[in-house]
Amino acid sequence: MWYQRISRLADLFRLGSILPIHDSPGQSGVSLSPQTISQLNRLKLNASRYIRGRGTGTRSSIRRHPAYDFREHRKYAPGDDIRFVDWKASARNEHIFIKQGEYPKDATVHLLLDCSASMNWGEPPKLRSALSIAASIAFLALSNGDRFFFQTSAGKSVQSLGPITGKGQIPSLFNFLQMITFEGRSDLVESIRGLIRKSQSGLILIISDLLDVNEFRHVLELLPAPKWDVVVIHLLHPLELKPEMLGDFQMVDAETGRIANYDIDAAAIQSYQENLSVWKDELETVCIDNNAFYILIPTDWSIEQEVIPLLRSIQLMIPK
Amino acid sequence: MSFIGFANPIGLLGLLSIPAIIVLHMLRERSKHYRVSSLSLWSFLDIEVRGSRLRKIPLTRLLLLDLSIALLLSLAWAQPHITLLLNGRSVHQIMILLDVSSSMLAEDIVPSRFSQAQLKAISLISSLGPRDSATVVTFGSTVKWIGNTSDSTVSEILNRITNLQAGETGNALPEALALALSVHDPEIPFELHILTDAAFSKIPSFDESESITWHIFSKESANQAVLRLSSYQINENQHQLFASIANFSTQPANRVISLLVDEVPVDSTTLKLNPESIVSQVWTVAGKPDVVNVILSGGDYLPQDDVASLGMHKGGLIRVALVTDSPSPVDRALHSIPNVTLRILSPREYFPGMQFDIVVFRQTVPEEWPNGVILVLDPPKENHLLEVEDLVSIEALPVVEPDPLLDGVDLSGISLKNVWKLKSFPESTVPLIKSGDLPILARTAVGNSTVYLLLADLDSGNLTRHPVFPILIDNLIQSVIQNPLPSALDTGLPLSLLSPVEYPFMKLTLPDGNSFEFGRERPTFFQQTQVHGVYRIEGLDAEGRTNNFFIGLNSGNQTESDIRQRAWATNLVRLDQDRETRVSQEVNLMPWLLGLAILLLFMEAWLSWR
């Protein structure tokens, strides 16, 4: 079977390992376990609204065209191919009817991955979870014949892939993910602009830690509904959600390298969590204002047991 | 009140580790580098401190624990001790004078006065601080130096005190005081503790300013005792035994007195003892026994003096002549002395050529002094040997000079009213008892004669009715007896051993069965005579013949058997109670500090592990 080949290939690229492997700082390690792949094989992305693509996809659509696989009839019009005339039905009626079949189309799925240095923070780093989620979504898109665009938002240079379609592109996609580096500062706005130049609409999933609220607001303004259906996957490390540190610390910003000294006590931790809650509420408000869907996923969540069930519960992934 | 001292002050140098620990913690805190995904998440903190500013001390639990542990270990190294003074005075130098006389064996205080005194002495020494010193001296018949903490360890001195044995006769407290005061350092606070039962009549003279604490171990205790046991050889096969039994109580007592001859009971009689009285008991014993014992049955607080033993020597008789027309009461005293053959002569019957060992003249003197020992009592006014002036009354208290003749002579209770005053005395006269400058008893040597002059008027006063009189006469007789060993001795007095010339080998067996063998190299005296009973000496002479000697060591005597606390000590008891609490108590804090430090170490390990 094709997915067995993929699994073997995934093993080759450490796709089969359950635990992620982080080769070096900033270098990604992609992981999808066989159980995850088996689970994804029974799912597809819920992208019915965005079937505006070319007639090469596998998704059914309301559009019809003359075909042997009959769905309905229509009256013959000049120029129609007479091979699709339903002679039997025409003989029983006064008009000549043409057999109409489904016009299969593909969906356009965009995935924007924040590859800034802050995503390479934590132990294990947030990029492990980000790559796993990105690989899962890409796997679903390609295995269901969707057009898939992949774009990074930082790194040495903004990297992009796509459009790619079909299961055969999955190894090259994983190979691409393997090569992504997480460093520097993210520039989501510029990345979105580059993405818009390639495609005018579609489903776009943004995977980021969204540390700049203002930038994020501007990003969503570039992706207006209903042309774009935006799903924001907000990744936060457990230590970002609940820091465990007390004392005097010399803090270093992972992206900018800026240094600041803080005395962290219990009151500071409490204030941090209050500010974190305000920040998350603000992000969610921005998403609602721009018809985007906001999902917060802690990076210690299991793909099979927590992330995929969550995405299924919000109907982003649906059974085939 | 209390103060803290350090046995090892150099250990406080460990406190220098405290600033080092603080610096290390500050450096450790400074180097705590923490990479965050974004500083924007923490920018709300108002207490941001930039690296250029001075850092404050990080008061973490680990720092506080480290500081506490360093403090505790440093203090423990310095070996602190807290001195608790219940009465606000420090004690740095203690002198302990411990009474080891026979009266301290009384059991009116359980288990005995001496045991309690030992415990008190041990308690005093155990409560000493590391800088304090203690000196222990015993007093009884003599003064003995037990030890000082400066030249012996405390445990050694405690061991010596534990092994002490009471049973001596006498009161050498003045000498003990003199010794203690001579060795103490005047620069150091000084306390003198006297542990005694105050059952002696003399108050030793001491400086009232000296810090003396009296520990009196005594109760109002009655006691009966066999004061004296002596024998008188009637003829070759008969002895007459004479015992004095005293009741030192204000209440009458009935005691059964038994006589044992060579450990065989031969007589038992119930004696009715009047208050404050002495009765005599006389037995006639046939044969030549080795030892006789007189035992008072029934109980009192001092059982040691309820037994008197006497070795029956096979020596010859002492010939004594009493020349007087008024033999009573002198003849009674002479009759009571063993081995004495008394002949009473009127002055007309006596002439100097008569052969006697001792001649006692009363109310008369011969024309010339005969050879030998002479005792003159109540000298007549007109004689040509002594120039007697007249009877004069005694104004000052009699003072007894140390002399073998006065062993066991205690003038307390003696009332001497008049004394014969002489115009002059021979040049070699030595006063033995005197009242001021007035001799009462004197000894002088004239030619081959030794003359004792007892100048007290025997008709006035109570000397002849007091036990001191026969003791005095007996001492005079004993000075003449040439026996190598005494037949009886007070406990605690040194026992003279046989001459190594006559007896090259001798063996001494004590009442408790222990024995000592002596060759030619032997001490003159045997000192460990605190145990009462019969001491047996076997002497092997140069010709290989063995002679046995038996000496009775008796606790009963006028000095020690009256175990009641004397009146002079009544005020001292109050003094004792007032000063009792001045003893310091020192607590060594090092084990507590070490234990607390170890506990904190475990706590720090647990916190780190968690």
Q: Main beta sheet of chain A: strand number and arrangement?
A: 6 strands, mixed
Oligomeric assembly: heterodimer
User: What Rg of chain B is obtained from the alpha carbons, in whole angstroms?
Assistant: 36 Å
Helix tally of chain A equals 10
Pick out its properties:
A: 320 residues; alpha/beta; six-stranded mixed β-sheet; 13 strands; 34% helix; 22% strand; elongated; B: 610 residues; eight-stranded mixed β-sheet; five-stranded mixed β-sheet
Would you give an account of this structure?
The complex is a heterodimer of chains A (320) and B (610). Chain A is of the alpha/beta class and 320 residues long. Chain A is built from ten helices and 13 strands. In chain A, the strands form four sheets. In chain A, strands 7-6-5-8-9-12 form a six-stranded mixed β-sheet, sandwiched between helices. In chain A, a hairpin with a 5-residue loop joins strand 10 and strand 11 (259-264). Chain B has 610 residues and is an alpha/beta fold. Chain B has nine helices and 33 strands. Chain B is elongated and about 140 Å long. The interface between A and B is medium-sized, with 33 and 23 residues.
Secondary structure blueprint with pairings:
The complex is a heterodimer of chains A (320) and B (610).
Chain A: H1 2-12, H2 34-40, E1 43-45, E2 64-66, E3 72-75, H3 87-91, E4 97-102, E5 108-113, H4 126-143, E6 147-152, E7 160-164, H5 170-178, H6 188-198, E8 202-208, H7 213-221, E9 228-236, H8 238-241, E10 247-253, E11 259-264, H9 266-289, E12 292-298, H10 303-313, E13 317-319
Parallel strand pairs in A: 5-6, 5-8, 8-9, 9-12
Antiparallel strand pairs in A: 1-13, 2-4, 3-4, 6-7, 10-11
Chain B: E1 2-6, H1 17-30, E2 33-36, H2 61-77, E3 80-85, E4 93-99, H3 113-126, E5 133-139, E6 143-148, H4 154-162, H5 173-183, E7 190-196, E8 212-216, E9 223-235, E10 238-248, E11 253-261, E12 264-273, E13 277-286, E14 291-297, E15 307-311, E16 318-323, H6 330-335, E17 340-345, E18 358-362, E19 372-377, E20 388-393, E21 398-400, E22 418-422, E23 430-435, E24 438-446, E25 449-454, H7 468-478, E26 488-490, E27 495-496, E28 505-509, E29 515-518, E30 525-526, E31 533-540, E32 546-554, H8 570-579, E33 584-588, H9 590-609
Parallel strand pairs in B: 4-5, 4-7, 7-8, 16-17, 16-18, 18-19, 19-25, 26-32
Antiparallel strand pairs in B: 1-3, 3-33, 5-6, 9-10, 10-13, 11-12, 11-14, 14-15, 20-22, 21-23, 23-24, 24-25, 27-30, 28-29, 28-31, 31-32
Helix pairs in contact in B: 1-2, 2-9, 3-4
